[in-house]
Structures are given as C-alpha cells and as structure tokens.
Amino acid sequence: MPKITKNQVRVPADVLPESRELYIENYLKATRGTGRLMLFACDQKIEHLNGDFYGEGIDISDLDPEHLFEIGSKGVIGVLAGQRGLIAQYAADYPEINYLVKMNSKTNLVKTSQEDPYSPQLHDLDWVLAMREAGVNIVGLGYTIYLGSEYESTMMAEAGELIAEAHANGLLVVLWIYPRGKAVADEKAPDLIAGAAGVAVCLGADFVKVNPPKASEDKTSAENLAIAAKAAGRTGLVCAGGSKADAEKFLSDLFDQIHIGGACGNATGRNIHMRSTEEAVRLTKAISAITLCDYSVADALAVFNGEKEFSL
C-alpha cells in the first residue's frame, strides 16, 4: 500500500502559513494517507437530473439521496463530492465522511447545439467555510470547466479565484475539466485531454478529473492518458468513471489508468451508486483496493465478489 507522510505532502505556495497544517491534514484525509484520490462523485442529481437515479438497470435504492451517504459511510472512499445543499442535508448524520463541496453545477437540458455550456458558481465560499466552522468535515472543493465553450474564460477566472481562496483556507480543490462546446469536434481527443490537464496545473488545482482519452492508431486509451498525466505536472490526474459498466471491465480499465496511464486515482459516481447499497459498498472497496493499495484486478474482483476482505 503506497503511503506518504506529512513531510511528503507538497503544499502549494498559495496556502497561507497559518493554514499549512490544515491543508496537510485535509490532503491526507482525502487521499487516505496514500497521495491517491478515490473520489465518490455524487453531483449528478443536478448534472443529469433523475435519469441516473431511477429507471431500468438502476437499483430502486438509488432514488433516495441518502443512499449516497450510506455508501460513503459503509464503503471505502477518499471523499464524497456533492453540492453544498445536498451535503448540508445529510452531513450531521454522516459526520465521518470526508466531504468535497461541488461549487458549480448545471443540468443537461440545454444542449451544446443550443448554447455553449456554462456552469456558474452556485454560492459564495464563505457559506462553505461557515459549514466547516459548524463542524462539517469539509476537506475540499470542486469546480467544472468546459474548455472550448465560449464561456471558458469566465469559468477559468471563477476557478482560479476559488483555488486561491480555498488554498488560503487550507482546502483542496479538484477541477472537473471537459472539452465541450460547438468549437470542440471530439471531446475525448487525446490532445484535448492532455490540454485540459495542463490547464488544471496552471490554475493551481490539486487534482483534475478528466474523461479517459480515446485510443489512437498507435496508443491505447491508457497510453494516451499517460501523456495527459505528465502534462498535469504536480496536479494529480483522475479519470471519470462514466456510465455503469461491468465490474470486471471497470476495474481492469482503472488498473490500466493507474499503472499505465499514470493516474493518481479515480472519480466514480454512476458505476457505484446505481447499484444496491450492499453491492455498491463492495465496489467502493474493490476500487479502493486498486486505487489505494495496488491490488491486482483479480484480487480487487475477489473483494467485489465478497471472496476477499478489504479495509483500511
């Protein structure tokens, strides 16, 4: 199991001296002391409305938002990412979870053919800091940027200011960066995914969530991801989990993303929460077994199938 000490945490220079210890504490919490991030993405109730939570192939328990928090509490994750209001409604009952507040969101109703995407910040950072002062275990913030949108400059400006303020207050920041808009012909083109990673480090993000790049003639998706991971520099790169997939295929792709692609973890939502609580908990453990403990795909699959115990 990869482990890092307090002295091995790289603290960005924009973290104020009085917030340095808090930043280190939050980094170690979020990465479970490994430097890798297992992010449980729970922001889709705005992003995708109810389509990800009710319907064919989705366990009925997913209709209740508390399902997300039950998984986060019983499973093995680094952070649970969700909007401020969602976290505010349930955090008192699940104080042990590390929370990452998603600062902007938009629905999927307005398509790119109608208007380029823009996801404005939903609330001021002061309200998040007030929640933290009230005892909510908030370790970081998240923000989505759509590169290629005609509104990208506004989103980058919002993200840049947010990162500076978050670091000054000892919080981590994860950027979701997706090339998207009428100017973008292929959202998963390898050069654009690597470009998104480079934007993230220039804005000062601690981690960046990107879609896995598509394979090219001479490289697999994971090999193209390695270029993006290098472009991200000291910003840890993690891949979006995408829509629900077979567990073995998902775990195999994750293993390659980390060990070939140089990813620093994962950011998974639908592949986890669309399942029953018991199955979802087992999948968080299997994902964390690979992400945080370098398990093989076979051993992680044994964890998912209940044939092997896993805990941190």
How would you classify the quaternary structure? single chain
* Percentage of residues in helical conformation: 25-40%
Q: Low-confidence runs (pLDDT<50, min 5 residues)?
A: none
CATH architecture: Alpha-Beta Barrel
Spatial order of the strands forming the largest sheet: 1-2-3-4-5-6-7-8
How would you characterize the overall build of this protein?
With 312 residues, this protein is an alpha/beta fold. It has a single domain (6-304), classed as Aldolase class I (TIM Barrel, Alpha-Beta Barrel). The protein is built from 12 helices and 8 strands. Helix 8 (221-231) links the parallel strand 6 and strand 7. Helix 3 (66-74) packs across helix 11, helix 7 runs parallel beside helix 8 and helix 8 (221-231) packs across helix 9 (247-259). The protein is globular. It starts with 19 loop residues before the first helix and ends in an 8-residue tail after the last helix.
